[in-house]
Structure formats: structure tokens, C-alpha cells
Design a protein that fits this description.
It is built from 10 helices and 8 strands. It has 259 residues and is an alpha/beta fold. The protein has one domain: Divalent-metal-dependent TIM barrel enzymes (TIM Barrel, Alpha-Beta Barrel), CATH 3.20.20. Strands 1-2-3-4-5-6-7-8 form an 8-stranded parallel barrel, surrounded by 5 helices. Strand 5, helix 6 and strand 6 form a beta-alpha-beta unit. The chain is globular, with a radius of gyration of 18 Å.
């Protein structure tokens, strides 16, 4: 299994790229600022520079803070959010990035069904654009209290559309603090997984610890994941444990899956 390193804010300098290459980084996932904070010309140039160093962008995280919520009830605000996502997906396609990871929604106030209906409408619009652009959308399982905090809910949405361009992102940290354990979430979602977010925690807080420094049983989980062929890099969505190097993080995570 291959792994991606998390660089939420891209540093496009040659020194940064050379450092990541020296650490054995082969893939990275970054945050939405990369797409929204650069021109199309800059985006293509940055992706090219990383690619020349042997570092690929497989996936990128869509916006999700503030009003960037695809499940929000307010129609005017949701329409504006969809417009941002449309531009985002178009830029992802230009950069030849294959997958966009999407949060189903923010904190719910006993209105999950209403929010899920709005999410369906948002996905319907965005999926048509993604399919035309050749970009996959990965719906992520969320922590408790958010829309999509059960794997069955996330899978229900994905199965409704039944598109090869729409799948799920299994976030291990979110599942570990939720109503179901990580192994159950994997078993429920495995047939539609097109992205992984690997991180750990104390079973209570979403604190993004490097595997295996939390409470997840990585030995069991890794053995289950290894039974299936996933042909994309899994993101380690955490910083190196104890301020170690990116290379050390990758070595330790690789060791988990090599047992």
C-alpha cells in the first residue's frame, strides 16, 4: 500500500519540494487554499514541479469551514457554496488531480434528514460537473454530531447516485470517536472507498495523531485492509509523532501494513 503525506498549506518552493523528495514522499494531499488561492497558471506550474520530483497529487480536500456546507438549509447560502465548489472542481480537473474529498455537512441541530435532503441536491449538481471533468468525489464519514457521522448514512447517499465518480473516504479518526468502531466502518464502506484518511486519537477527541499512537487497533485494521486492492495512495492525515520527520512518519505507517 502506498501513502500520501499531508501538507495542508502547500509550500511550492524548490527547497520544500526537494525536502519532501528526500524524505521519500511520493504523494501529498493538500487543503482547499491551493485551488482557491492561486491562479490556474500557478496551479498547473506547481503541480508540474511536484510531479517532476516524483510527487503526485491524488486527492485534495474541498472547502468545509464557515458557510462552505453542502447540507446547509439556507438556499441562498447553499447556492453560493455550490458555485464555489463548481469552480473548485474545474480547477482540480485542470490540475489533473483525481479525487476531491468532501464533508457531508457541519454540526447538525436535530435536522439531519433536512440536511441530507439538501446534501443530495448539492451532490446531484456537483456530480454532473465532476463526471464531465473526470474528477471523483469522495464523501467522508464525520465525527459525532455532524451530518454523515455513520458509515451507513454516507454509504446510503453514495449508493443513491451509483456513479463511478462518486465514492467514500474512510476517515479512521472520525470512526474511532463515533458510534461504531473503525473496523465496522471499513467493512460497511470498503466497496466504495476511493480515498483514505488515516489518523488516530484517544477515542474521544478528533486530535489527528499519527498511527499507531492512539487507541485504534492498527494491526487488525491493516490486516483487513490488506485483503483488498486499493490502487491509490492513502493519506496519513497527521503530523509526525513527537516532531519527527515526514520520512519517519511514512516508515512507521508502512511498517504497520507490512506486518
Amino acid at each position: 500500500m502506498n501513502f500520501a503525506y499531508s501538507q495542508w498549506i502547500i509550500n511550492p518552493s524548490s527547497e520544500s519540494i526537494d525536502f519532501l523528495k528526500s524524505q521519500g514522499v511520493k504523494a501529498i494531499e493538500t487543503g482547499p487554499e491551493f485551488m482557491l488561492g492561486h491562479s490556474e497558471t500557478e496551479i498547473k506550474a506547481i503541480v508540474k514541479n511536484f510531479s517532476m520530483a516524483g510527487i503526485q497529487f491524488y486527492s485534495i480536500h474541498a472547502p468545509f469551514t464557515g458557510e462552505m456546507d453542502l447540507s446547509q438549509i439556507n438556499t441562498e447560502k447553499r447556492t453560493k457554496t455550490i458555485a464555489v465548489f463548481k469552480e473548485f472542481i474545474n480547477r482540480v480537473a485542470i490540475a489533473k488531480i483525481k479525487c476531491v474529498v468532501i464533508h457531508p455537512g457541519s454540526v447538525q441541530n436535530n435536522d439531519e434528514e433536512s440536511r441530507l435532503d439538501k446534501l443530495r441536491l448539492s451532490i446531484e449538481t456537483l456530480l454532473s460537473i465532476a463526471e464531465k471533468s473526470g474528477v471523483k468525489l469522495a464523501l467522508e464519514n464525520m465525527p459525532p454530531g455532524h451530518v454523515g457521522d455513520l458509515s451507513s448514512t454516507v454509504m446510503g447517499i453514495v449508493n443513491e447516485f451509483d456513479s463511478p465518480f462518486f465514492g467514500v473516504c474512510l476517515d479512521t479518526g472520525h470512526a474511532n470517536i463515533g458510534k461504531e468502531n473503525v473496523l465496522t466502518a471499513f467493512e460497511n464502506m470498503r466497496d466504495k472507498i476511493i480515498a483514505f484518511h488515516f489518523h488516530d486519537n484517544d477515542g474521544v477527541r478528533d486530535i489527528h495523531l499519527q498511527p499507531p499512537y492512539g487507541t485504534i487497533n492498527w494491526t487488525v485494521l491493516a490486516k483487513e485492509i490488506a485483503k483488498y486492492e486499493f490502487d491509490f495512495p492513502a493519506l496519513v492525515e497527521a503530523q509526525p509523532w513527537n516532531n519527527a520527520s515526514p520520512g519517519q512518519l511514512l516508515k512507521e505507517v508502512e511498517a504497520i501494513f507490512a506486518r
